[in-house]
Specification:
Helices cover 10% and strands 38% of the residues. By secondary structure, it is mainly β. A five-stranded antiparallel β-sheet has the order 1-8-7-4-5, with no helix packed on it. A five-stranded mixed β-sheet has the order 10-16-17-14-15. The protein is rod-shaped and about 115 Å long.
Protein backbone atom coordinates (compact mmCIF):
# COMPACT_ATOMS: atom_id res chain seq x y z
CA UNK A 1 0.00 0.00 0.00
CA UNK A 2 1.42 3.28 -1.11
CA UNK A 3 1.80 6.01 1.51
CA UNK A 4 -0.70 8.84 1.32
CA UNK A 5 1.04 12.16 0.64
CA UNK A 6 0.38 14.91 3.21
CA UNK A 7 -2.39 17.33 2.38
CA UNK A 8 -1.02 20.87 1.94
CA UNK A 9 -2.51 23.45 4.32
CA UNK A 10 -5.39 25.44 2.99
CA UNK A 11 -4.40 29.13 2.63
CA UNK A 12 -6.42 31.53 4.77
CA UNK A 13 -9.30 33.26 3.13
CA UNK A 14 -8.77 37.03 3.05
CA UNK A 15 -12.04 38.85 3.20
CA UNK A 16 -12.27 42.29 1.74
CA UNK A 17 -14.84 44.89 2.55
CA UNK A 18 -15.38 47.64 5.09
CA UNK A 19 -14.57 47.47 8.77
CA UNK A 20 -17.22 48.54 11.21
CA UNK A 21 -16.36 52.13 12.10
CA UNK A 22 -18.78 54.77 13.30
CA UNK A 23 -18.71 58.01 15.29
CA UNK A 24 -20.01 58.44 18.80
CA UNK A 25 -20.64 62.07 19.75
CA UNK A 26 -19.78 63.09 23.29
CA UNK A 27 -21.83 65.80 24.96
CA UNK A 28 -23.87 68.04 22.67
CA UNK A 29 -21.61 67.69 19.62
CA UNK A 30 -21.87 64.72 17.23
CA UNK A 31 -19.37 64.61 14.35
CA UNK A 32 -20.13 62.58 11.23
CA UNK A 33 -17.26 60.65 9.63
CA UNK A 34 -16.57 60.61 5.93
CA UNK A 35 -16.57 57.45 3.86
CA UNK A 36 -13.54 55.33 4.71
CA UNK A 37 -11.17 53.43 2.54
CA UNK A 38 -10.36 50.15 4.28
CA UNK A 39 -7.79 47.73 3.01
CA UNK A 40 -6.64 44.36 4.34
CA UNK A 41 -2.96 44.02 4.81
CA UNK A 42 -0.83 41.50 6.63
CA UNK A 43 2.44 43.07 7.64
CA UNK A 44 5.10 41.00 9.32
CA UNK A 45 3.92 39.84 12.71
CA UNK A 46 0.29 39.94 11.62
CA UNK A 47 -0.40 43.27 13.34
CA UNK A 48 -2.87 45.90 12.25
CA UNK A 49 -3.17 49.62 12.65
CA UNK A 50 -5.09 52.83 12.08
CA UNK A 51 -3.95 55.49 9.66
CA UNK A 52 -6.06 58.61 10.17
CA UNK A 53 -6.47 62.18 9.08
CA UNK A 54 -8.44 64.76 11.10
CA UNK A 55 -10.17 67.60 9.23
CA UNK A 56 -12.62 70.38 9.91
CA UNK A 57 -16.08 69.21 8.99
CA UNK A 58 -17.09 72.56 7.52
CA UNK A 59 -13.96 74.00 5.93
CA UNK A 60 -12.33 70.62 5.11
CA UNK A 61 -8.94 71.96 6.24
CA UNK A 62 -6.60 69.71 8.28
CA UNK A 63 -6.69 70.02 12.07
CA UNK A 64 -3.12 69.96 13.33
CA UNK A 65 -2.26 69.33 16.97
CA UNK A 66 -5.40 67.27 17.68
CA UNK A 67 -5.02 64.77 20.52
CA UNK A 68 -5.73 61.13 19.60
CA UNK A 69 -6.36 58.61 22.38
CA UNK A 70 -7.28 54.92 22.28
CA UNK A 71 -9.43 54.76 25.39
CA UNK A 72 -8.68 51.86 27.71
CA UNK A 73 -5.06 51.71 26.52
CA UNK A 74 -1.91 53.70 27.08
CA UNK A 75 -1.76 54.64 23.41
CA UNK A 76 -1.94 58.34 22.63
CA UNK A 77 -0.64 60.53 19.82
CA UNK A 78 -1.38 63.79 18.04
CA UNK A 79 -1.89 64.94 14.47
CA UNK A 80 0.83 66.69 12.48
CA UNK A 81 0.40 69.89 10.46
CA UNK A 82 -1.44 67.94 7.74
CA UNK A 83 -3.88 66.51 10.28
CA UNK A 84 -2.43 62.98 9.93
CA UNK A 85 -1.59 60.37 12.56
CA UNK A 86 -0.74 56.65 12.70
CA UNK A 87 -1.29 54.00 15.36
CA UNK A 88 0.53 50.81 14.40
CA UNK A 89 1.02 47.44 16.07
CA UNK A 90 -2.64 46.92 16.90
CA UNK A 91 -4.14 43.51 17.34
CA UNK A 92 -7.63 42.46 16.34
CA UNK A 93 -10.45 43.80 18.44
CA UNK A 94 -12.63 46.82 19.11
CA UNK A 95 -11.07 50.23 19.80
CA UNK A 96 -12.63 53.46 20.99
CA UNK A 97 -10.76 56.40 19.46
CA UNK A 98 -11.24 59.79 21.11
CA UNK A 99 -10.26 62.96 19.24
CA UNK A 100 -9.82 66.32 20.97
CA UNK A 101 -8.88 69.66 19.46
CA UNK A 102 -9.18 73.27 20.59
CA UNK A 103 -12.33 74.83 19.15
CA UNK A 104 -14.03 71.48 18.44
CA UNK A 105 -16.37 69.14 20.26
CA UNK A 106 -14.82 66.01 21.78
CA UNK A 107 -15.80 63.03 19.62
CA UNK A 108 -15.18 59.28 19.74
CA UNK A 109 -15.20 56.66 17.01
CA UNK A 110 -15.57 52.87 17.46
CA UNK A 111 -13.15 50.91 15.26
CA UNK A 112 -13.21 47.11 14.94
CA UNK A 113 -10.05 45.61 13.50
CA UNK A 114 -9.55 42.13 12.16
CA UNK A 115 -6.18 40.47 12.52
CA UNK A 116 -3.63 42.26 10.37
CA UNK A 117 -6.05 44.88 9.10
CA UNK A 118 -4.99 48.47 8.40
CA UNK A 119 -7.78 51.04 8.46
CA UNK A 120 -7.30 54.30 6.56
CA UNK A 121 -9.87 56.81 7.76
CA UNK A 122 -10.76 60.49 7.64
CA UNK A 123 -12.08 61.82 10.96
CA UNK A 124 -14.24 64.94 10.74
CA UNK A 125 -14.59 67.34 13.66
CA UNK A 126 -17.44 69.81 13.99
CA UNK A 127 -16.28 73.23 15.23
CA UNK A 128 -18.00 74.84 18.18
CA UNK A 129 -20.81 77.13 17.06
CA UNK A 130 -20.20 79.78 19.70
CA UNK A 131 -20.68 83.50 19.31
CA UNK A 132 -19.13 85.65 22.00
CA UNK A 133 -20.63 88.95 23.01
CA UNK A 134 -18.73 91.86 21.50
CA UNK A 135 -16.25 93.58 23.78
CA UNK A 136 -15.89 97.34 23.53
CA UNK A 137 -12.65 98.84 24.77
CA UNK A 138 -12.70 102.53 25.54
CA UNK A 139 -9.59 104.43 26.48
CA UNK A 140 -9.65 107.08 29.16
CA UNK A 141 -9.86 110.57 27.70
CA UNK A 142 -6.85 112.82 28.13
CA UNK A 143 -7.00 115.91 30.32
CA UNK A 144 -7.47 118.16 27.29
CA UNK A 145 -10.22 115.90 25.90
CA UNK A 146 -12.03 115.85 29.23
CA UNK A 147 -11.83 119.66 29.43
CA UNK A 148 -13.28 120.01 25.94
CA UNK A 149 -16.11 117.65 26.83
CA UNK A 150 -16.93 119.82 29.85
CA UNK A 151 -16.48 122.95 27.70
CA UNK A 152 -19.09 121.66 25.22
CA UNK A 153 -21.49 120.75 28.03
CA UNK A 154 -21.33 124.32 29.39
CA UNK A 155 -21.60 125.70 25.87
CA UNK A 156 -24.85 123.80 25.32
CA UNK A 157 -26.28 125.37 28.46
CA UNK A 158 -26.56 128.70 26.60
CA UNK A 159 -24.94 130.78 29.35
CA UNK A 160 -21.92 132.94 28.52
CA UNK A 161 -19.88 133.47 25.38
CA UNK A 162 -17.65 130.69 24.04
CA UNK A 163 -14.70 130.98 21.67
CA UNK A 164 -13.47 127.72 20.12
CA UNK A 165 -10.01 126.88 18.82
CA UNK A 166 -11.25 127.15 15.24
CA UNK A 167 -12.59 130.65 15.92
CA UNK A 168 -9.30 131.66 17.54
CA UNK A 169 -7.36 130.55 14.47
CA UNK A 170 -9.79 132.26 12.10
CA UNK A 171 -9.54 135.58 14.00
CA UNK A 172 -5.76 135.91 13.41
CA UNK A 173 -5.55 137.53 16.86
CA UNK A 174 -2.18 137.50 18.64
CA UNK A 175 -3.35 138.08 22.23
CA UNK A 176 -6.36 137.24 24.34
CA UNK A 177 -7.17 140.97 24.61
CA UNK A 178 -7.64 141.12 20.83
CA UNK A 179 -10.08 138.19 21.01
CA UNK A 180 -12.14 139.92 23.69
CA UNK A 181 -12.63 143.13 21.74
CA UNK A 182 -16.18 143.25 20.43
CA UNK A 183 -17.56 140.64 22.86
CA UNK A 184 -20.89 142.01 24.21
CA UNK A 185 -20.63 142.93 27.90
CA UNK A 186 -16.80 143.10 27.84
CA UNK A 187 -14.77 146.31 27.64
CA UNK A 188 -11.00 146.53 27.26
CA UNK A 189 -9.60 149.38 29.37
CA UNK A 190 -6.04 150.19 28.25
CA UNK A 191 -3.74 152.74 29.89
CA UNK A 192 -0.04 153.21 29.18
CA UNK A 193 -0.03 149.99 27.16
CA UNK A 194 -1.52 147.94 29.97
CA UNK A 195 -5.03 146.60 29.40
CA UNK A 196 -7.60 145.19 31.74
CA UNK A 197 -10.84 143.40 30.85
CA UNK A 198 -13.90 144.91 32.49
CA UNK A 199 -17.42 143.54 32.66
CA UNK A 200 -20.27 145.97 32.10
CA UNK A 201 -23.10 143.78 33.35
CA UNK A 202 -21.99 143.24 36.94
CA UNK A 203 -24.35 143.82 39.85
CA UNK A 204 -22.09 146.63 41.07
CA UNK A 205 -21.56 148.30 37.72
CA UNK A 206 -18.38 148.08 35.70
CA UNK A 207 -15.86 145.78 37.37
CA UNK A 208 -12.70 143.88 36.56
CA UNK A 209 -13.19 140.28 35.48
CA UNK A 210 -11.76 137.34 37.41
CA UNK A 211 -9.44 135.13 35.33
CA UNK A 212 -9.13 131.37 35.36
CA UNK A 213 -6.45 129.53 33.36
CA UNK A 214 -6.72 125.74 33.11
CA UNK A 215 -9.01 125.71 36.12
CA UNK A 216 -6.76 127.81 38.39
CA UNK A 217 -7.07 131.52 39.34
CA UNK A 218 -4.80 133.81 37.29
CA UNK A 219 -3.47 137.39 37.63
CA UNK A 220 -5.97 139.92 36.32
CA UNK A 221 -3.54 142.57 35.11
CA UNK A 222 -1.43 140.52 32.70
CA UNK A 223 -3.88 137.95 31.32
CA UNK A 224 -5.24 140.07 28.42
CA UNK A 225 -1.70 140.21 27.06
CA UNK A 226 -1.44 136.41 27.04
CA UNK A 227 -0.53 135.15 23.54
CA UNK A 228 -3.15 132.96 21.91
CA UNK A 229 -0.58 130.32 20.98
CA UNK A 230 -1.59 127.03 22.67
CA UNK A 231 -5.05 128.26 23.70
CA UNK A 232 -7.80 125.82 22.68
CA UNK A 233 -10.89 127.50 24.17
CA UNK A 234 -12.14 130.58 26.06
CA UNK A 235 -15.27 131.01 28.16
CA UNK A 236 -16.59 134.48 29.00
CA UNK A 237 -19.22 135.04 31.71
CA UNK A 238 -20.30 138.69 31.99
CA UNK A 239 -21.61 138.55 35.59
CA UNK A 240 -21.25 136.43 38.70
CA UNK A 241 -24.80 135.15 38.26
CA UNK A 242 -23.96 133.95 34.74
CA UNK A 243 -20.72 132.13 35.74
CA UNK A 244 -20.67 128.45 36.82
CA UNK A 245 -20.01 127.91 40.51
CA UNK A 246 -16.69 126.12 39.88
CA UNK A 247 -15.23 129.34 38.44
CA UNK A 248 -16.34 131.71 41.23
CA UNK A 249 -14.30 132.73 44.23
CA UNK A 250 -15.86 133.30 47.65
CA UNK A 251 -15.87 137.10 47.14
CA UNK A 252 -16.64 137.16 43.40
CA UNK A 253 -18.51 140.32 42.44
CA UNK A 254 -17.94 140.30 38.69
CA UNK A 255 -17.77 137.98 35.73
CA UNK A 256 -15.17 135.35 34.83
CA UNK A 257 -12.97 134.71 31.80
CA UNK A 258 -11.79 131.08 31.67
CA UNK A 259 -8.94 130.08 29.35
CA UNK A 260 -8.03 126.52 28.39
CA UNK A 261 -4.64 125.56 26.97
CA UNK A 262 -3.06 122.43 25.52
CA UNK A 263 -0.34 122.38 28.14
CA UNK A 264 -2.53 122.53 31.23
CA UNK A 265 -2.15 119.95 34.03
Amino acid sequence: MLPVPPVPPVPPVVRTGRSLLFAVGLGAFVCAASASQVRNNSPSGGTGGIVGRVIDQQSRVPVGGASISLLGTHLQTSTDSSGSFTEAGLGSGTYLIEVRAIGYGVTSWVVRLRDGEIVDYVFELAPFDLQLDPVTVEGRPSTAQRRMQEFEERRRSGRGVFITEAQIQASHATTVGELLRGVPGVRMNCRSGVCTAQMTRGAHGICAADWVVDGLPATMSSTPHLPVVGIIAIEIYRSASEAPAEFLKADSQCGVIAIWTKSGP
